[in-house]
């Protein structure tokens, strides 16, 4: 084989294992969004108020925070592959339990278990990809996690729409005496099982292998999958960055800035802002949101699917530009774009008329709200959606990466929990226009945060990252 053919073969292999790892991102997205189409049916079936509904949706995110917090340290002890297998098992159990839930309390328990799986996937997939990918491809390959996530969201919303259509409503019976909303959860069993199979087939992370003194295995992985010209030297570089070859712990991220390393606080800020702009108000509640301003159930499902298609499409933009244009530039563009689109959406919602089940948006405000919400998704999906996870996977030094990323990911999920919990409450108490006005404010603040605090990581090997 020529040198070009060898390089192409290595590129194909590293893409292949990255795609396999990113299936965790697919499940991350699917499990997060599947609740969207079931929200109204669950509320009716279990007779929930707005706060009870918020808890039943948001409680998953507490599991996500727990999974993200522990995933890094478990992965340092057991390896990335075994933690992926654990995540697969949790997704499988959650899918079956949620679909067959008898009371709202056991539904919430099964959703928490699924949330732990999501938290694990949110940390392990980007960490694994960052550790196995060459620097020149790392941004694009790490973005596969977010691409898989957006495809998972699309698959969940499309599946919800198809199942609800077959049953003529999410609350109606479909097969074997089970309502359509139950089947929305049950179908997740298929990708969850596929994730477990793929996790068995991919190689272990070379950085984990070096940490466990399995240097020869690490060399073989680097040779086979990355085409590194001097894998022995790369192994030495990895070992040099690992402090005393011990597992990382919370002590590794301590610092002088309110008890934590300054870089960890930046990661926490990134993670929190990604949720404070309100992306999951759309992906968890979009069907309910559009029904609340006059759309029919069928129109709401179709609108949600269209939004998810936009989300998938624009993630390809991030993959194309993240290694060329730079992380900071993309994030700042995204912040300003989200601010403008959310501001227009808030203004449109302020023009709603009626109350209760008779709320409507007269022309042209309905079209402006829909365009603003989808333009927000465009900017988020092309920037903050994937690039935030890329940054968290690469901005921390080796000696703190898994714990620091787990801490930031936990902050992401806790912020997500707070936002998700209060969306239905705020929608009823103060209105959508104030809610989206707050999201616009946080989008603007995120611009100044990125401009003043974020280091550029584009093109650097992980071994070059310094706190």
Question: Could you explain the architecture of this structure?
Answer:
The protein contains 19 helices and 3 strands. The chain has 467 residues and is mostly helical. It has a two-stranded antiparallel ribbon with strand order 1-2. The model has no long low-confidence stretch (mean pLDDT 78).
Quick check: average pLDDT?
78
Distance between the amino and carboxyl termini: 42 Å
Class based on secondary structure composition and strand pairing = mainly alpha
* Secondary-structure element string: HHHHHHEEHHHHHEHHHHHHHH
So what's the overall shape?
globular
* CATH domain class: Mainly Alpha
CATH-defined architecture: Up-down Bundle
User: What helical percentage do the residues reach?
Assistant: over 70%
Describe the secondary structure blueprint for this structure.
Elements: H1 3-33, H2 35-45, H3 50-78, H4 80-99, H5 104-132, H6 135-166, E1 173-175, E2 178-179, H7 180-186, H8 189-201, H9 206-211, H10 215-226, H11 231-241, E3 254-257, H12 262-276, H13 279-292, H14 297-325, H15 327-349, H16 365-382, H17 384-394, H18 401-429, H19 432-453
Antiparallel strand pairs: 1-2
Helix pairs in contact: 1-4, 1-5, 1-6, 1-8, 1-10, 2-7, 2-13, 3-4, 3-5, 3-18, 4-5, 4-7, 4-8, 5-6, 5-17, 5-18, 6-7, 6-14, 6-17, 10-11, 12-17, 12-18, 12-19, 13-14, 13-18, 14-16, 15-16, 15-17, 15-19, 16-17
């Amino acid at each position: 084989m020529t040198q070009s053919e060898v390089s192409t073969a290595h590129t194909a292999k590293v893409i292949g294992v990255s795609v396999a790892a990113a299936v965790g991102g697919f499940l991350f997205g699917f499990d997060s969004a599947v609740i969207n189409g079931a929200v109204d049916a669950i509320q009716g079936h279990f007779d929930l108020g707005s706060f009870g509904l918020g808890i039943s949706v948001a409680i998953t995110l507490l599991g996500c925070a727990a999974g993200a917090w522990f995933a890094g340290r478990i992965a340092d002890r057991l390896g990335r592959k075994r933690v992926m297998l654990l995540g697969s098992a949790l997704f499988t159990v959650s899918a079956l339990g949620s679909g067959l839930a008898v009371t709202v309390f056991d539904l919430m328990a099964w959703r928490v278990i699924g949330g732990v799986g999501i938290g694990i996937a949110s940390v392990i997939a980007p960490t694994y990809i960052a550790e196995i990918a060459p620097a020149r491809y790392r941004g694009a390959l790490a973005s596969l996690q977010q691409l898989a996530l957006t495809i998972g969201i699309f698959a969940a919303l499309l599946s919800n729409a198809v199942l609800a259509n077959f049953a003529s409503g999410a609350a109606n019976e479909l097969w074997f005496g089970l309502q359509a909303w139950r089947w929305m959860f049950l179908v997740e069993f298929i990708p969850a099982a596929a994730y477990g199979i793929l996790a068995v087939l991919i190689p272990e992370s070379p950085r984990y292998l070096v940490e466990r003194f399995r240097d020869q295995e690490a060399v073989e992985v680097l040779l086979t999958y990355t085409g590194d010209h001097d894998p022995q030297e790369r192994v030495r570089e990895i070992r040099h960055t690992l402090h005393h070859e011990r597992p990382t712990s919370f002590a590794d991220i301590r610092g002088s800035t309110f008890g934590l390393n300054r870089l960890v606080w930046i990661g926490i800020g990134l993670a929190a802002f990604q949720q404070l702009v309100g992306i999951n108000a759309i992906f968890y509640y979009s069907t309910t949101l559009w029904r609340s301003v006059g759309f029919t159930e069928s129109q709401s499902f179709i609108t949600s699917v269209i939004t998810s298609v936009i989300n998938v499409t624009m993630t390809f933009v991030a993959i194309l530009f993240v290694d060329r244009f730079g992380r900071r530039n993309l994030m700042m563009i995204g912040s300003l774009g989200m601010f403008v689109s959310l501001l227009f959406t808030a203004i449109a919602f302020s023009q709603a008329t009626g109350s209760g089940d008779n709320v409507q948006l007269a022309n042209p405000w309905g079209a402006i709200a829909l365009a603003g919400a989808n333009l927000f998704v465009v900017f988020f999906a092309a920037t903050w959606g994937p690039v935030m996870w890329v940054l968290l996977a690469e901005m921390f030094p080796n000696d703190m990466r898994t714990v620091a990323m787990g801490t930031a990911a936990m902050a992401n999920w806790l912020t997500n929990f707070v936002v998700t919990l209060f969306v239905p409450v705020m929608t009823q108490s103060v209105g959508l226009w104030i809610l989206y006005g707050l999201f616009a404010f946080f989008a603007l603040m995120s611009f100044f945060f990125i401009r003043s605090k974020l280091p550029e990581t584009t093109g650097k090997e992980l071994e070059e990252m310094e706190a």
